[in-house]
Design brief:
- The chain has helices spanning 5-29, 49-53, 58-67, 88-95, 106-116, 125-135, 141-165, 175-192, 205-224, 227-233, 236-245, 249-278, 280-284, 293-300, 306-337, 339-352, 365-369, 372-384, 430-434, 437-440, 458-463, 485-502; strands spanning 71-75, 81-85, 102-103, 171-174, 390-395, 399-408, 414-420, 425-429, 522-525.
- A hairpin with a 5-residue loop joins strand 6 and strand 7 (414-420).
- 55% of the residues lie in helices and 9% in strands.
- By secondary structure, the chain is of the alpha+beta class.
- The strands form three sheets. The protein has a five-stranded mixed β-sheet with strand order 1-2-8-5-3. A two-stranded antiparallel sheet has the order 4-9.
- The structure holds protoporphyrin IX containing FE.
- Heme binds at residue 482.
- InterPro entries: Cyt_P450, Cyt_P450_E_grp-I, Cyt_P450_sf, Cytochrome_P450_monoxygenase.
- The chain crosses the membrane at residues 6-24.
- One of its GO terms (molecular function) is monooxygenase activity.
């Protein structure tokens, strides 16, 4: 049957009406959210979303996340409202009782799926629980223990490269760049059983593709909101064809990134399956010594499909590297800014090694846990500088969230719960939870590792912050809590120990207050 132009126009009109009805209904139901305190929007059309997501205006975002209380109204484009929550009672409910209502937004998981394939961050609901159950055992402490010698070896390589780079005292070195390569290599060897090459070189196409993902995504940010709708209308093969023919540089670049990572992952995986067939001995002689996450997964369940494993490989590497290397850079920058803390840490580490007649290679997983000042420095840095400041969720149906701290209603009376209409974006305000003065005290914004050496004030435990680490929300909690947090902490403990025992870090003379996006990356080494 031929499609007439009238029926085509009718179809387009129907699609337009169908796609605008839910947002209109949501805006009508968001009345009560409009009373929640928040920054004034400069424009009905854009809201403050653009400023909030700008990597160049961290100060504005941090101001918004800490200055309006535990529930903050965020004006979104075209009069939509989102809410940022750092109220532990509300966040606890989102991650606990209402965990099935508050999911990752579909545009987020669809983007991940389109670029990386089916990994943890690209699936939802039951599929996510299944995948998570499959992956959890690979992250058990007993496997992490086996990875410590590999982390030690990469840390030693890092120190050797830095020594070559800075043979003279006082040489300036772009330390952040090396920490980024170090993290990628550590995760590559222990996650995938793959090496990205020497820490001196600038990496492989795979590592470059991972690095370019974030900036390319920013260029496509507004368009990806329409991805779920587009995917519902067009078959996958059409979309793939469109990425080839459309004259859209960012989209083509993203396709290149996706293909590149896919091909490398497939190659690594096929090699691993081959080695596994040859027996455990062959796998143990490979780069990850058979102790890497993918080898562990293949041993646990050899029936997992290549498609799933490739999705996991890409998303694990993506989730692991930038976060961990940002934290590491931050620790080194803070130690450079606080020479007393650096000296105290060096004394603790020297006592645990030379003082106890042990070499660095003798420090195992448990011994690393018994270094209280190192532990305090990591806890405090993870609390104050979480690499992910907000975690997005969307209400899949209408929901009511209880509040520990009330917000004003239309009459200015305290309101102890928030009605969240279906489709509303709710950001879990990690940054706000970690810096709340009522919880952490008036010095919440200061970096004080010492706070972890004495019992914490009762306000911290009384707050019942949803957390899997040190009462902070940095790794989140609930069904989507960071699966690799223990691995990240282990990588950090080992790298910091090697670095602080090998170098003295100082601030560059121009110093200044560092922004997360602009870490001072050059530190003089002796
Ligand atoms: C300091 C370093 C790290 C930080 C601060 C961090 C933080 C987080 C946070 C906040 C989430 C939740 C995001 C959300 O649900 O919106 C998350 C999820 C995740 N992280 Fe990490 N992460 C770190 C390191 C790692 C490492 C080393 C790995 C893997 C080896 C990893 C793998 C993942 C994965 C796969 C998820 C998705 C979990 C799921 O959806 O079930 N992360 N991470």
């Amino acid at each position: 049957m031929a499609i007439t132009s009238a029926s085509f126009i009718a179809l387009i009109c129907a699609l337009v009406v169908l796609s605008i009805l839910p947002p209109v209904r949501r805006r009508l139901k968001q009345r009560s959210l409009r009373n929640v305190p928040g920054p004034i929007s400069p424009s009905f059309w854009t809201g403050i979303a653009k400023e909030l997501h700008s990597p160049f205006d961290m100060r504005f975002r941090e101001h918004v996340l800490t200055s309006y209380g535990r529930a903050v109204r965020i004006a979104m484009p075209l009069g939509d409202v989102a809410i940022a929550l750092s109220d532990p009672v509300a966040v606890g409910t989102m991650l606990g009782r209402h965990r099935e209502v508050f999911e990752l937004p579909v545009w987020f998981s669809e983007t991940m799926n389109a670029v990386w394939g089916p990994g943890l961050m690209s699936v939802q609901g039951k599929e996510h629980s299944l995948q998570r159950r499959l992956l959890n055992p690979a992250f058990a402490v007993r496997h992490l223990r086996d990875m410590v010698p590999i982390f030690n070896r990469v840390s030693k390589e890092l120190v050797d490269v830095l020594r070559k780079e800075a043979p003279e005292p006082g040489t300036e070195v772009d330390i952040a760049q090396y920490l980024s390569r170090y993290t990628l290599e550590s995760i590559g060897r222990t996650g995938l059983g793959y090496t990205f090459g020497s820490l001196e070189s600038h990496g492989t196409d795979y590592s470059r593709a991972l690095k370019e993902f974030g900036p390319t995504l920013m260029r496509l940010h507004h368009w990806r909101l329409y991805l779920p709708l587009v995917r519902r209308i067009f078959p996958r093969s059409w979309l793939r064809w469109a990425t080839e023919v459309l004259p859209w540089a960012a989209l083509r670049h993203m396709r290149g990134i996706s293909d590149n990572v896919y091909m490398t992952s497939l190659e690594v995986l096929q090699r691993k399956r081959e080695l596994l067939k040859q027996g455990d001995e062959s796998l143990s002689s490979d780069i990850g010594e058979g102790k890497d996450l993918i080898s562990i997964l293949l041993r646990l369940d050899a029936t997992v499909s290549d498609e799933n494993l490739i999705g996991h490989m890409s998303l694990l590497t993506l989730g692991a590297t930038d976060t961990t290397s940002t934290m590491l850079s931050r620790v080194i920058e803070l130690l450079a800014r606080h020479p007393d803390a650096q000296g105290k840490l060096r004394r603790e580490l020297t006592e645990a090694t030379a003082g106890a007649g042990r070499s660095l290679a003798d420090i195992d997983y448990e011994a690393y846990l018994n270094l209280p000042y190192l532990d305090a420095i990591i806890r405090e840095t993870v609390r104050l500088y979480p690499p992910l400041q907000i975690a997005p969720r969307v209400a899949e149906s209408d929901a009511v969230l209880p509040l520990g701290t009330p917000v004003p209603d239309a009459q200015g009376q305290p309101c102890h719960e928030l009605f969240i209409p279906a489709g509303t974006i709710v950001w879990i305000n990690i940054f706000g939870l970690n810096r709340d003065k009522d919880t952490w005290g008036p010095d919440a914004n200061e970096w004080k590792p010492e706070r972890w050496l004495a019992p914490l004030p009762p306000s911290v435990s009384d707050a019942h912050i949803p957390s899997i680490y040190a009462h902070t929300a940095s790794f989140l909690a609930g069904p989507r809590a960071c699966i690799g947090y223990n691995m990240a902490l282990t990588v950090m403990r080992i790298a910091i120990t090697h670095l602080v025992l090998s170098f003295d870090f100082a601030r560059r003379s121009y110093g200044g207050t560092a922004e997360l996006s602009r870490l001072p990356s050059k530190a003089p080494l002796p």
